[in-house]
């Protein structure tokens, strides 16, 4: 199979979108990034827990920080989007919260904010967008919530 390459001679992009590795969410995350955030070019690393990976970094050479440093340094990104999601196995899944979806969301919001502070300590001018992907009560749809 041969496909066209539309980025010939282009070595920069708008953003880096760091997500969890969970296969259940990435297609909808791509749609959200395109339709809601209108970001058309981005690097797309994924690590277990997304914000968790950043928060557990011991130094700037850890993998999660490299997933941010490389796009910032090589692709000149100006934005970072960090997406955490409900029922994340890296955090113990929804069962950790005994069915309390509000507690689960609040926990992820706190994790996202901690990750933002950690990244901003190194990349002061980076615009950081925090997103929580919340499952509805029947796990039939995903609501994307911007975390302020």
What does this structure look like?
This protein has a single domain, classed as Beta-carbonic Anhydrase, Chain A (3-Layer(aba) Sandwich), CATH 3.40.1050.10. It has a five-stranded mixed β-sheet. It contains four helices and five strands; from the N terminus they run βαβααβαββ. The longest helix is centred in the last third of the chain and has 20 residues, at 101-120. The mean pLDDT is 95. With 148 residues, it is of the alpha/beta class. It has helices at residues 26-35, 51-55, 63-74, 101-120, and strands at residues 15-19, 42-43, 79-85, 127-135, 142-147.
| Radius of gyration over C-alpha positions, nearest whole angstrom | 16 Å
The CATH topology name reads Beta-carbonic Anhydrase, Chain A
Average pLDDT, all residues: 95
Distance between the termini: 43 Å
Coarse shape: globular
User: What string, H for helix and E for strand, traces the elements in order?
Assistant: EHEHHEHEE
Q: Give the % helix.
A: 25-40%
The largest sheet is: 5 strands, mixed
- The amount of beta strand, in percent, is 15-25%
Which strands sit side by side, in order, in the main sheet? 2-1-3-4-5
Low-confidence stretches: none
The CATH architecture category equals: 3-Layer(aba) Sandwich
User: What CATH first level would be assigned?
Assistant: Alpha Beta
- For the secondary structure, the number of strands is 5
Count of individual helical segments: 4
What's the domain count? 1
Going by CATH, the homologous superfamily would be Carbonic anhydrase
Q: Which structural class is indicated by helix and strand composition?
A: alpha/beta
């Amino acid at each position: 199979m041969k496909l066209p390459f539309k980025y010939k001679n282009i070595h920069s992009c708008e953003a880096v979108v760091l997500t969890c590795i969970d296969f259940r969410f990435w297609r909808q995350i791509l749609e959200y990034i395109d339709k809601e955030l209108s970001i058309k070019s981005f690097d797309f690393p994924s690590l277990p827990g997304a914000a968790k990976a950043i928060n557990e970094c011991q130094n700037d050479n850890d993998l999660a920080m490299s997933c941010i440093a490389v796009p910032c340094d090589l692709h000149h990104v100006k934005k970072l989007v960090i997406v955490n999601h409900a029922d994340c196995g890296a955090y113990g899944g929804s069962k950790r919260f005994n069915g309390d979806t509000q507690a689960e969301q609040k926990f992820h919001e706190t994790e996202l904010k901690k990750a933002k502070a950690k990244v901003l300590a190194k990349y002061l001018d980076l615009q950081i967008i925090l997103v929580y992907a919340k499952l509805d009560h029947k796990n039939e749809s995903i609501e994307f919530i911007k975390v302020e």
